Amino acid sequence: MEKQLGKLYLIPSSMGENAVQALPQYVLEIVHQLDIFIAERPKTARRFLKSIQTPVPFAEMTFYELNKYTDAAERNTFLDVAFEGKDIGLLSEAGCPGVADPGAEIVAMAHRRGVEVVPFVGPSSILLALMASGMNGQQFAFSGYLPAKPIERVKALKREENLSSSNNQTRIFIETPYRNNPLVQDVLKTLSASTLFSIAVDLTLPSQYIRTKSIQDWRKQDLPDLHKRPAIFLLYSPTMKKYKRR
């Protein structure tokens, strides 16, 4: 009798301390049964597993480290245990695996090798920010990280605004947390006064902050300090359609 393949479970992690309540109980119950994990940083993965009170001792767990330094040959072996009937958990650094996350490579590999992929319900900072922004939820695009260099970043912001206007589309992007404040300053200097800009910080945490205002209104108020805080940024510059009288 052919041995049943293990499954690849995509496990949304909490997006910070005191945010485990964002994960459904049935997800926690299945995660409690796993002892093999693929994670961007095993240290963060262990911290998350400890926070959900996993009953499996860490000494009995196996962690595969997946990041930009992982050798391709090593990465290609991560799913081998599935062919021994072992289930595997894929953990994102924060939020949903495979979305703005290197775990997408493992998911693609699972499909190529015939390993069943099981996504779990959990927090996605991108979707939570879009839901709470009040912007267009029918047409939207995620651009990932904008350029780090100021000149290139300003060009990218203008491009994002033009794409929003021409496509009637919400544009979503992120920044390395220690560059959040400079990014916001560039946004306020670069975008049109009528463009809507949303800041969503510390989602699902007690310190959560979500505000959507026009650039004109943002310029009038004191800005929150976003230094080293996980944030999602959104802008919306809808095309103003003119209708001819009949």
| Helical content (DSSP H or I, runs of 4+) | 25-40%
CATH class category label of the largest domain? Alpha Beta
Query: Number of DSSP strands?
Result: 10
- How would you spell out the order of helices and strands? EHEHEHEHEHEHEHEEHE
Radius of gyration: 21 Å
| Class by SSE composition | alpha/beta
Low-confidence stretches: 241-246
Gap between N and C termini: 74 Å
CATH topology of the largest domain: Cobalt-precorrin-4 Transmethylase, domain 1
Mean pLDDT over all positions: 92
Q: What's a quick, concise take on this entry?
A:
This protein is 30% helix and 20% strand. It is α/β, with parallel strands linked by helices and 246 residues long.
Q: What features would you highlight for this structure?
A:
single chain; 246 residues; alpha/beta; Cobalt-precorrin-4 Transmethylase, domain 1; Methyltransferase, Cobalt-precorrin-4 Transmethylase, Domain 2; 2 domains; five-stranded parallel sheet; five-stranded mixed sheet; 20% strand; elongated; disordered C terminus
